Amino acid sequence: MFKLDGIEKMNEEQKLVYMLILLEGQLSSERDALANLSNAAAIIKAVMNRLNWAGFYIMRNGELVLGPFQGLPACNRIKLSSGVCGAAAASRKTQLVPNVHEFPGHIACDGASNSEIVIPIIKDEIVYGVLDLDSPEFNRFTELEAKYLEKYVEKLNKYIDWKEI
Ligand code: SME
Fold first, then answer.
1. pTM for the structure as a whole
2. Fewer CB within 10 A of the end CB, N or C, for the chain?
3. Residue 145: which CATH number?
4. Which residues form the GAF domain (predicted)?
5. Does residue 122 lie in a domain region?
């Protein structure tokens, strides 16, 4: 059974470290890439608060296709020329967007989203997808979270064979 022990007493960084520990537990006990990505999305949604969506888009034939996620049903396909996800994949850089309504080409999958962070998933110089988090709060995401979410993706990269997805 999944339990979040003592999380309410943790500060921001302790929670992010804990999230990495939970991910390591998942990845080291299961080899299936789809199961691992599904629980990776669920761990983020369980640990980080004030989120309305957390999940993955996977690169398929030059566009991003919806992968495992937690939240409302979302856009199935995103071109690299559009949205925050497309920008992260095309630029290969984390996009920390305090107000999505000011981001040119932002795609409103869930009307509740007001801020967003997207981390590109890059292994051996190939972009395999993105990790996308949305919040109903403006200016929700911090540089510290960006740093730890990049570590989260590094850990996924260590265990996941993206070609299996
Ligand atoms: N807002 C994203 C689209 C994906 S959803 O937020 C789940 C974007 O602009 O790329």
1. 0.97
2. N
3. 3.30.450.40
4. 45-150
5. yes
